[in-house]
Design goal:
Helix 1 (about 10-30) packs across helix 2. The chain is built from 4 helices and no strands. With about 110 residues, it is an all-alpha fold.
Amino acid sequence: MKKKAGTPDLRPKLVSNAIKNVTLLLKEKGHSADETVIQHVANQAIDEFVAEWYEVSLEAIELKDGEADFVTDDEIDDPELVKEAKLRVIKELYEEPPEDFYENIAQNAMTS
């Protein structure tokens, strides 16, 4: 039986999208865009989003498996499960970024 593959790591695609979208936003505002700065700020934004939401993803995984009672990562010592939860958050962010996601990155890139 073939093992079900985990969630793919979409961070590189998400960062690439962020660079493209933020560059356009900054140009519309008359600002030049340094790709290195945008990439750095985008990665920070992704890390913050993941830190805020991965426990919710972790709970969803555990609830689906019937093992959760509102757990936190302090109670889960399975690094693969934590990694999978974080990858799912990145995938969701890639597929449906919040309305202000790229705008916030653009704002932070301008002040960096």
